[in-house]
Design brief:
39% helix; alpha/beta; globular; binds phosphoenolpyruvate; 15% strand; TIM Barrel; 10 helices; single chain
Length: 247
């Protein structure tokens, strides 16, 4: 499977900074390069889409959608609107959406299903909090989050999964390659047990990925790529992480 390197800019890089990023981002090309996805803030999407220096092959997504198609939901955007604006993917269930904005498993699942129904590829994020890990609940948390999505997602959907331990996001704490492999194994086993027979689901690792640790994480068994927050804001660092994913 072709590796995937994704950058989640969170609430960083408005339109001007997005243009500046794309002016200096050198996207690795040639044999074995990963797919490269960037998730800018929604207000920066148009600047990225229209940028003359946007590297060919760079895929753009939004960080969040609403599960309804339209209506009285102030501040929200629908999957169809994001698609119309040039996004082809959306993050769903990022830990900040779950734990800062209070999204529960059912909401995350509805968003994933709405994205898929509109033709926007969901990147579904799952991950355990430190206290859940310490309590031995790694598998039960991941499976609860995954099952909710599998209950609603059509079997033909194209989607990606991202394992992002909450304790490793933006903290500088990185899961070891073995930790990542273990969690990815749990997710893959469940996909198989639930009879997933749709398109192959790449499973990414996210949490304090940097140029210096990206390669060993992507080399870990069961890891198909990385979802990068902080280090994706710097074009040089992000380019180095993409290069680290070259097979
Ligand atoms: C993220 O936001 O998905 C993430 C993994 O952040 P960071 O790389 O900064 O830990």
């Amino acid at each position: 499977m072709r590796r995937v390197v994704a950058g989640n800019w969170k609430m960083n890089h408005g339109p001007s900074e997005t243009r500046a990023f794309l002016d200096s981002f050198e996207m690795p090309t040639g044999e074995g390069v990963p797919r490269v996805l960037i998730f800018p803030p929604s207000v920066s999407l148009a600047a990225a889409v229209a940028h003359p220096g946007r590297p060919g092959g760079l895929e753009l997504g939004v960080q969040n959608i609403h599960f309804e198609a339209s209506g009285a939901f102030t501040g929200e955007v629908s999957a169809a609107m994001a698609l119309d604006a040039g996004a082809t993917l959306t993050l769903v269930g990022h830990s900040e959406r779950r734990h800062v904005f209070g999204e529960d498993d059912a909401t995350v699942a509805r968003k994933a299903a709405a994205a898929a129904a509109a033709g926007l590829t969901p990147v579904v994020c799952v991950g355990e909090k430190l206290e859940e890990r310490r309590a031995g609940d790694l598998a039960s948390v991941l499976l609860r989050q995954l099952d909710a999505v599998l209950d609603l997602l059509p079997g033909t959907a194209e989607w990606l999964l991202a394992y992002e331990p909450v304790w490793a996001i933006g903290t500088g704490e990185t899961a070891t390659p073995a930790d990542a492999s273990q969690a990815h194994g749990i997710l893959r086993e469940r996909l198989a047990a639930r009879g997933w027979s749709g398109p192959e689901v790449p499973v990414l690792y996210g949490g304090s990925v940097k140029p210096g640790n990206a390669r060993e994480l992507m080399d870990a068994p069961g890891v198909d790529g990385v979802l990068v927050g902080g280090a994706s804001l710097d074009p040089t660092d992000f380019s180095a992480i993409v290069e680290a994913g070259r097979r």
